[in-house]
Design brief:
There is one protein chain. This protein is mainly β. The protein is about 0% helix and about 50% strand. The protein has no helices and 11 strands. Strands 2, 4, 5, 6, 9, 10 and 11 form a 7-stranded mixed sheet that branches. A 4-stranded antiparallel sheet has the order 1-3-8-7, with no helix packed on it. The radius of gyration is 13 Å and the shape is globular.
């Protein structure tokens, strides 16, 4: 299993970034996927999750209405569109695969693979 994130960078407050996560080594369309982030000095925080065929999407309260998760099963790719970015969104962002197929959870302990992360910095 390999998960490779990209798309991070430096953005100004109010700006936008789009993260991508390309998956390989498993049947992508059979697994719930999530984004999580880790800010400096803090633990890993769940941000957003999406079910197998994008029927349902879920967001942490801190990003709801600003972030949009999506997936393209034909391309084995997960996305996170981040709008109206705030300095508190600064973190290393990871995509993760849930351990059990066809099963939704936001419990990060139930995720068995994570990518290497992509850095998002929001600063003026």
């Amino acid at each position: 299993v390999q998960l490779v994130e990209s798309g991070g960078g430096l953005a100004q407050p109010g700006g936008s970034l789009r993260l991508s996560c390309v998956a390989s080594g498993f049947t992508f369309s059979n697994y719930v996927m999530s984004w999580a982030r880790q800010a400096p000095g803090k633990g890993l925080e769940w941000v957003s999750g999406i079910t197998l065929r994008s029927s349902n999407t879920y967001y942490a309260e801190s990003v709801k209405t600003r972030f949009t998760i999506s997936r393209d099963n034909a391309k084995n790719t997960l996305y996170l569109q981040m709008n109206n970015l705030k300095p508190e969104d600064t973190a290393l962002y990871y995509c993760g695969k849930v351990r059990r197929s066809h099963y939704y959870t936001a419990d990060l302990n139930q995720y068995d693979y994570w990518g290497q992360g992509t850095q998002v910095t929001v600063s003026s």
